[in-house]
Specification:
CATH topology of the largest domain in chain A: Sulfite Reductase Hemoprotein, domain 1
CATH architecture of the largest domain in chain A: 2-Layer Sandwich
CATH class of the largest domain in chain A: Alpha Beta
Number of helices of chain A: 18
CATH superfamily of the largest domain in chain A: Sulfite Reductase Hemoprotein, domain 1
Distance between the termini of chain A: 56 Å
Number of domains of chain B: 1
Bound molecules: iron/sulfur cluster
Number of strands of chain B: 11
Distance between the termini of chain B: 23 Å
Oligomer: heterotrimer
Largest sheet of chain A: 6 strands, mixed
Number of helices of chain B: 5
Shape of chain B: globular
Largest interface: A-B, 43 and 39 residues
Helix content of chain A: 25-40%
Structural class of chain B: alpha/beta
Strand content of chain A: 15-25%
Chain lengths: 552, 179, 102
Amino acid sequence: MYRYDEFDLGFVRERVAEFRDQVARRLSGEMTEDQFKPLRLMNGVYLQLHAYMLRVAIPYGVLSGRQMRKLAHIARKYDRDYGHFTTRQNLQFNWIKLADMPAILEELAEVEMHAIQTSGNCIRNVTADHFAGAAADETVDPRPYAEILRQWSSLHPEFSFLPRKFKLAVTGAAADRAAIQVHDIGLEAKRDAKGDIGFAVWVGGGQGRTPMIARKLRDFLPEADLLAYCEAILRVYNLEGRRDNKYKARIKILVHEKGTDEIADAIENEFASLKGKALDLPAAEIARIAAYFAPPALADLPARSAKLEAAKAADVALARFVDRNVSAHKRPGYGIVTVSLKPVGLPPGDATSAQMDAVAALAERFSADEIRVSHEQNLVLPHVRLDDLPELFAGLAAAGLATPNAGLVTDIIACPGLDYCSLANARSIPVAQRISERFADLGRQHDIGDLKIKISGCINACGHHHVGHIGILGVDRKGEEFYQITLGGSGDETCSIGEIVGPGFPADRIVDAVEQVVDAYLGLRRDPGETFLAAYRRVGLKPFQEALYADA
Amino acid sequence: MPTPETALWRAGAFAADDWRFPAAGEPVPADGKVALPKARFLAERAALAGRNGPIGVVLESGESLADIEDDVPRFGLIVLRFARYADGRNYSTARILRDRLGFRGELRASGDVLRDQVLFMLRAGFDALEIAHAGTVATLKEGRIVGVHRHYQPASNEIGESAAGLRGWQRTSRRLASN
Amino acid sequence: MAKAQATGALAVTANDLRSGTVVFRRPDGRWSEEVLEAEIALTAEAAQALLAGARADHDACIVVEPALVEITMTGNRPAPRHLRERIRAQGPTVAYGAAAAN
Ligand code: SF4
């Protein structure tokens, strides 16, 4: 993993001191709330429904055991003993005192972490494939580039007051686990015929009120040009993006209103003046940063673990877990383990300090001290020997973290919604809880197969409902919570935006409605191998509308 | 343009303003340093060509460099107005002026200029700040600006900055001294 | 955010500047975490006076985001009328942290 050098550490410490000064000025009354708000937001401090919330960046989703323990410590000491992992590889603490913020940031700096640019109209925490550096299908490890982008975007003097927030995601595999096509900039690192590294550059994707799929502006941007090209995109956006209406201020609207060609020309123009200068990425520097992400020392193992196979044969629960929660690793004899934060009936993405400590200990013991945070609000142990899986499974089970539901109907993404969020129209968490209770039976879940349900409590779409196979959007209808269903969304390399199926449902009908959709799918799929998404793409909305509104 | 309540901070020290900003309808003085709004500059561009003294231009928030890019070399001063500090367009305009158009005259930020943005402004290429905010004036006077002086990007105004190490884009800047 | 109405019962809520905690304004001008202790205004004038006091505390850096909320009375127990404000007053509707995990 990346390790801070003295410069990085000095940078974060200076930022803590700066924020300490800003908090002091606010508390002393030297600064008004209006002046302070954009400053606190640039450091991830929100005022939510109940209290201040602190959003900590987990850059491109990578954590060590030590860092996870620090998060657990902060949860215990300064909060109510838990935290919430978000859809953007961040961790949110929900009950933090403003006066404690500087001390918390100092504690984070001790373990090379921060909350810089986790909010505000600036370049946000750079996200990446949560299987980076481990996945069997990976072409290029995206983490070094994500780290380079993290550095370049940190307190960028030109791009700290953009029209609106700006999100980058990077992947290095053909299977897109980072949802790059619904980001302001999505990058896919790849190799050309000569073996050189470059990037497909996607611009102008996003969710929110006006969901849009990004346009590909470059198919193979040479590696050395990465920063200059991103700087060109940001400059065009900063100058031309709309500032008159915050709902039209994202780059997707600019691309849409001006047209892809005009925007591409403007970007290429800027790029021409930036290319070949100080922002060029020297090969030596890429190599230096890439060295931090060298794979851990993994043993040469046979592809098949006799020990695991024997244990699976003796334990159905383990077999289920391995079937759903273990993904293919680059190296034979290893697997990537998804630690589900979606136990049936609990808030998606939440973890107690005890669970964080448990994951830290298991990562140190079984996964080369590496943890990943996924945008699907789960944790990942990326380098686990297949031989160790039975023991790891037992350890996870003891911490309540062995739910074998990765990618299944109960692995629901849900934003905090009206239980925490001051922007919400409706609650998300109770809906997720009730759906997961309804589908609690594991046999039924496995029979249904891959199905991503995503729930947002308002049109800001933090719960990514637009790209849920089943998306649920909470709306406020005359003071009552209502839920609108979209079908057929997908955030992967076959990216699509879900379509609204029809009128919304009240809170006491939404779970039935989801079940009707699922039952309709089970009735019409060609065979158990045809996933919900595939079936939807074959048959379209109609059969589902008929199932939902038959007696309307 | 500084009113009695604003102070001009220029290249590290507070200074008296030697530029004049004729009001609408007021004739342009025959000599001395004079800066005009963009529209007026464009309207009187031909007549101003023969003038002796230096000419400057004032761009309001949201006004771009369109139509005056070719005039940039003749300007001695360019003022970019911040109506709200959260409107960040001027940072890009400043960098284009410095890096692409080679502007070497005084580049002045005015309007909503606050201490928390001073370092960003300087790195984007501004070398003068017209400050109305008393707290910011006091803080600059006392050299009390607390900010981040390690940077991950090359900037457009690197006076006092140095490359800090291996990374080609890494910089450190000096603290703002009191004066 | 609720608008002042001449007829309905209203209270003033805010967040404590330092801790962020949800608070309600009491009759003595202090702030309480309990909506039960909130001063209830029954006329538009009373509500405006209540809000003016809260705004002064905002300017004095004691609270942030002061606002009127509509209140319904059950007997003499006040509770916010809308779900959002009820959640603010009473906390999340779902168990969290160790309480949820156990
Ligand atoms: S989607 Fe809306 S309700 Fe949910 S977290 Fe985002 S802003 Fe809040």
